[in-house]
Amino acid sequence: MSAALQAVKQFRIRELAPLLKADPKLSTARPKVLNPFLPHKNPESGRWAPPKYSLRRQAELIKSARASGLLHLLPPGPKLAPKTIEDASTSAQTSAEATEQAKWWTAAIEWDGEFKEKEVKGADVGNRLYAGKKRMFKGHKWERMADKRTWKRDMLMKHMSKRIARFKTVRGLGGALRLWRVLTGDCVL
User: Fold this and answer.
1) Rounded to whole angstroms, how far apart are CA atoms 30 and 111?
2) Which is more confidently placed, 60 or 169?
3) I need a labelling partner for 72 at 20 to 30 A (CA). Which of 97, 128, 152, 185 fits?
4) What is the pLDDT of residue 117?
5) Which residues pair with 110 in a beta bridge?
């Protein structure tokens, strides 16, 4: 048995064993089990309890389930959307896994707790971080000034060849004029 299949099997046994030990008749029915991927509210104290499995552990279980083709056996949660589970369950029913379906730990379960997916603006176009915002983050000053400096540099470089030619002629005339003044005696070196 592969490690991925073993991880999913251990997860299912860990979650179902206490329920089946308490009432063996539930093995034929579709039992309702508390979703370990979601936080739940304690009915006695009214306080919220965190999920039994962390997000990192959920991601590891999902990777294992994908590798072994048992994604439909996991409950929905933040790392696994209900739509993905539905797609996986339809593909699992069409595949030839009749031997695995006969085992008790692969039985259908109704997970208690509702997972609500958050709609993120801009996720459909690939811009989740800055969706709905007027501008991007503040950034460094050189990042904010880059466009202005680029525009100024382009304007200065536009007629640079004419400016260089004019500079050389004026400087050349200035040097010749100074030499003329020295030769005529108007200026002393």
Assistant:
1) 10
2) 60
3) 128
4) 78
5) 32
